[in-house]
Amino acid sequence: MKDYYVKLGYDFNREPFDEGGLEFIVRYNRRQAEAKLHEDVKPTLERLRECGFRQHILSAREQNELVSETISAGVHAFFGLIRGLDDHFAHGKTGVGVRLLEELAEDPAGMLFIGDTLHDAAVAAEIGLDCVLIPNGHQSEQRLRSAGLPVLPSLRNLISLL
User: Fold this and answer.
1) Average pLDDT of the residues in 81-98
2) 105 and 155 share a domain?
3) What is the domain-level CATH number for residue 108?
4) From CA 52, how far away is CA 55, in angstroms rounded?
5) Three-class SS state of 25
6) Which of 35, 23, 45 is nearest to 66 (CA)?
7) Rounded to a whole number, what is the largest CA-CA distance in the chain?
8) What share of the chain has pLDDT > 90, as a percent?
């Protein structure tokens, strides 16, 4: 995550990463309740559950906040394991993913990682999962296509893919 900010031009010799990261998360948390789910999220999660797919969350969000947000959004019950990070600085999503796979103790060949960033694509590759990207986040479809993975126009297209 720190490399991302360096590419944007931040100089961590002038302002330490942890200070900027903490400032970001304080502002993010202050406005987080304004964020709404995309309209196709709940129907897609419901349809996946009806089809017998087990669903889990791997996120760079801090664990307690992630759980709270899934409850507030009304989607918590769709997921088995919900795993985020133990801090606010998005270090170690890959490590959390490895531990999640260990907890599941299943063949990764039957799993699909659904993400919305190039970082998600990289994490999926590092932990050995197939990945599909959906441009509903802060990276464009064109940018996501540079990963060389399938990119779906929206989450609702996932059902037809599976």
Assistant:
1) 81
2) yes
3) 3.40.50.1000
4) 9
5) helix
6) 35
7) 52
8) 62
